[in-house]
Design goal:
Multidrug-efflux Transporter Regulator, Chain: A, Domain 2, single chain, three-stranded antiparallel sheet, alpha+beta
Protein backbone atom coordinates (compact mmCIF):
# COMPACT_ATOMS: atom_id res chain seq x y z
CA UNK A 1 0.00 0.00 0.00
CA UNK A 2 1.52 3.30 -1.07
CA UNK A 3 1.82 6.09 1.44
CA UNK A 4 1.22 9.60 0.25
CA UNK A 5 2.99 12.46 1.86
CA UNK A 6 0.54 15.03 3.11
CA UNK A 7 1.52 18.55 2.17
CA UNK A 8 0.18 21.76 3.55
CA UNK A 9 -0.45 24.67 1.29
CA UNK A 10 0.01 28.22 2.42
CA UNK A 11 -1.89 31.09 0.95
CA UNK A 12 -0.28 34.43 1.55
CA UNK A 13 -3.06 36.95 1.85
CA UNK A 14 -2.39 40.64 1.75
CA UNK A 15 1.11 40.53 0.34
CA UNK A 16 0.80 44.20 -0.51
CA UNK A 17 -1.89 44.99 2.06
CA UNK A 18 -0.58 47.47 4.68
CA UNK A 19 -3.05 46.10 7.24
CA UNK A 20 -1.46 42.65 6.91
CA UNK A 21 2.05 44.03 7.28
CA UNK A 22 2.93 44.85 3.70
CA UNK A 23 5.41 42.94 1.58
CA UNK A 24 6.92 39.71 2.82
CA UNK A 25 10.68 39.26 2.40
CA UNK A 26 12.65 36.04 2.26
CA UNK A 27 15.58 35.33 4.58
CA UNK A 28 17.95 35.92 1.67
CA UNK A 29 16.36 39.29 0.83
CA UNK A 30 16.65 40.41 4.45
CA UNK A 31 20.26 39.21 4.62
CA UNK A 32 21.21 41.10 1.47
CA UNK A 33 19.47 44.23 2.69
CA UNK A 34 21.31 44.08 6.05
CA UNK A 35 24.57 42.88 4.44
CA UNK A 36 24.81 39.78 6.60
CA UNK A 37 24.75 36.04 5.93
CA UNK A 38 21.49 34.09 5.65
CA UNK A 39 22.52 32.06 8.70
CA UNK A 40 22.74 35.23 10.78
CA UNK A 41 19.19 36.21 9.85
CA UNK A 42 17.94 32.71 10.74
CA UNK A 43 19.76 32.92 14.07
CA UNK A 44 18.11 36.28 14.82
CA UNK A 45 14.70 34.83 13.98
CA UNK A 46 15.20 31.74 16.16
CA UNK A 47 16.45 33.86 19.08
CA UNK A 48 13.44 36.18 18.80
CA UNK A 49 15.50 39.25 17.87
CA UNK A 50 13.74 39.45 14.49
CA UNK A 51 10.03 38.76 14.09
CA UNK A 52 9.15 36.42 11.23
CA UNK A 53 6.39 34.18 9.94
CA UNK A 54 7.33 30.49 9.87
CA UNK A 55 6.14 28.59 6.82
CA UNK A 56 5.08 24.94 7.03
CA UNK A 57 7.90 22.60 6.11
CA UNK A 58 8.74 18.94 6.02
CA UNK A 59 12.46 19.22 5.41
CA UNK A 60 15.43 20.06 7.52
CA UNK A 61 15.13 23.83 7.30
CA UNK A 62 12.12 25.96 8.12
CA UNK A 63 11.16 28.69 5.69
CA UNK A 64 10.56 32.16 7.06
CA UNK A 65 9.16 35.42 5.78
CA UNK A 66 9.84 38.79 7.36
CA UNK A 67 7.38 41.63 6.96
CA UNK A 68 8.90 44.67 5.31
CA UNK A 69 7.50 46.96 8.00
CA UNK A 70 9.32 44.85 10.64
CA UNK A 71 12.58 45.45 8.82
CA UNK A 72 11.76 49.14 8.38
CA UNK A 73 11.08 49.40 12.13
CA UNK A 74 14.64 48.20 12.81
CA UNK A 75 15.99 51.18 10.91
CA UNK A 76 13.59 53.64 12.51
CA UNK A 77 14.30 52.54 16.09
CA UNK A 78 16.31 55.08 18.00
CA UNK A 79 16.26 57.76 15.33
CA UNK A 80 14.84 61.13 16.31
CA UNK A 81 11.64 62.02 14.57
CA UNK A 82 11.50 65.15 12.50
CA UNK A 83 8.33 67.16 12.86
Amino acid sequence: MARHKQTDTVEVHGKNDPEMGGDLLTVREVARHLRVDDTTVRRWIKSGALEAVALPHSGKRCGYRVRKNTLDALFNTGTPSTV
